[in-house]
């Protein structure tokens, strides 16, 4: 990346940033554009944050929409990639897009170029782009992929929002409780010792918990941190543990139904997009399995793939898993019979995405009073426990 300064034919000073192999190439390019370069130098790297933020799925969704829009408008793919790179403020995203552009310029296809970045572009994405290139409809496929990624990120955002708020409130409540037990309750305990009377059982219980926290807070903190790290590591490395957690999540009240509907919506939309792009059905199912977001559904989709590979219709294979609702199976059957499987799956995806939206909104409304009750019981209970002896003393004095 170079920064440059020069004058145009009217003598107006112009400045800018541009990617080039070296300064001489950039000077020649500027002169070709009618600009007389005065200063061309490498862009200085910032002292902090030079590595840039990680490339997120949302960045890939935006990238997909940008390149789809520009290609549909007639912008060549190399030019589109250059515009996306120069307009992106994330250093890592810039480097990745520049690398893709360089590969495309050297003769590689877009699917081959993004294949060198498997972390950011998963197998599904690469297969869709490859299918679009083979069929000569890359612009259309990229537009479909962009819509798919946007819908998927919106759905994931909804679910994260539903789970993040109560989790944060509970974490804050537990933190406040720990602070009260370690720093505030011991002060009351010193006061109570001068009463010379028996304390209420509830107060004694809270003081006992406080004494334990004061003595062993470091062990509790280490235990919680260790348990958290061990759980995350086990979830990442153990397929059996991940399957157990996913199965338990699906059985939770309210949240379990949201996760069910989310997995069905992701399955339906991903399969519809893949099948519409021209990917063979068995190959599409193989790719779709990992996009469901739940290992229980992932295994079910693999079973569907195996059944379809030996000649079963998709709807019958789905029915055998005992996981997909009757409506989904029936709509899939209608789509297969009418030769419009992708259209019917899009309708299924839209229905279940709306179900997730409605359930998340209902969950938010339900959780607010429950969270207030939780906070009242935890914090209010400790306050009452500390003031009970004072009330008792007041009654004796009275």
From TrEMBL:
UniProt keyword annotations, A-Z: Cell inner membrane, Cell membrane, Membrane, Transmembrane, Transmembrane helix, Transport
Annotated TM spans: 162-185, 215-235, 370-390
Signal peptide extent: none
Domain Type II secretion system protein GspF: 63-186, 267-389
UniProt KW Transmembrane keyword: yes
Primary residence: membrane
InterPro entries per record: GspF/PilC (IPR003004), T2SS_GspF/T4SS_PilC_CS (IPR001992), T2SS_GspF_dom (IPR018076), T2SS_GspF_sf (IPR042094)
A Pfam family assignment: T2SSF
Membrane topology: Multi-pass membrane protein
Domain of life: Bacteria
Localization in the cell: Cell inner membrane
Family statement drawn from the similarity comment of this UniProt entry: Belongs to the GSP F family.
Protein's name according to its UniProt entry: Type II secretion system protein F
């Amino acid at each position: 990346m170079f920064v440059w300064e020069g004058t145009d034919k009217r003598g107006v000073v112009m400045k800018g940033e541009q990617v080039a192999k070296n300064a001489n190439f950039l000077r020649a390019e500027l002169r070709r554009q009618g600009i007389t370069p005065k200063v061309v130098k490498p862009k200085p790297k910032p002292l902090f944050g030079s590595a840039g933020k990680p490339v997120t799925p949302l960045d890939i969704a935006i990238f997909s929409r940008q390149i789809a829009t520009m290609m549909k408008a007639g912008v060549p793919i190399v030019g589109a990639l250059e515009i996306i790179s120069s307009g992106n403020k994330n250093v890592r995203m810039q480097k990745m897009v520049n690398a893709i552009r360089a590969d495309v310029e050297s003769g590689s296809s877009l699917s081959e170029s993004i294949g060198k970045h498997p972390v950011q572009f998963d197998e599904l994405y690469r297969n869709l782009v490859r299918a679009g290139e083979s069929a000569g409809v890359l612009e259309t496929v990229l537009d479909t992929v962009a819509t798919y990624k946007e819908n998927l990120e919106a759905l994931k955002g909804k679910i994260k929002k539903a789970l993040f708020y109560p989790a944060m409130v509970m974490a804050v409540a537990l933190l406040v409780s720990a602070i009260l037990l370690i720093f505030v309750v011991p002060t009351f305990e010193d006061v109570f010792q001068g009463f010379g009377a028996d304390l209420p059982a509830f107060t004694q219980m809270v003081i006992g918990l406080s004494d334990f926290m004061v003595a062993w807070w470091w062990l509790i903190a280490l235990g919680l941190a260790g348990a958290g790290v061990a759980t995350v590591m086990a979830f990442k490395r153990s397929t059996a543990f991940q399957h157990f957690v996913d199965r338990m999540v699906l059985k939770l009240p309210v949240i379990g139904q949201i996760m069910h509907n989310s997995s069905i919506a992701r399955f339906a939309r991903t399969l519809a997009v893949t099948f519409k792009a021209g990917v063979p059905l068995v190959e599409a199912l193989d790719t779709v399995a990992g996009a469901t977001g739940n290992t229980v559904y992932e295994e079910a989709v693999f079973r569907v793939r195996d059944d379809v590979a030996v000649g079963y219709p998709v709807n019958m294979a789905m029915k055998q898993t005992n996981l997909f609702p009757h409506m989904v199976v029936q709509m899939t059957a209608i789509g297969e019979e009418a030769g419009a499987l992708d259209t019917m799956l899009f309708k299924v995806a839209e229905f279940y995405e709306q179900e997730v939206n409605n359930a998340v909104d209902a969950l938010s409304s339900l959780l607010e009073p429950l969270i207030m009750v939780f906070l009242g019981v935890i914090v209010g209970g400790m306050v009452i426990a500390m003031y009970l002896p004072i009330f008792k003393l007041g009654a004796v004095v009275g």
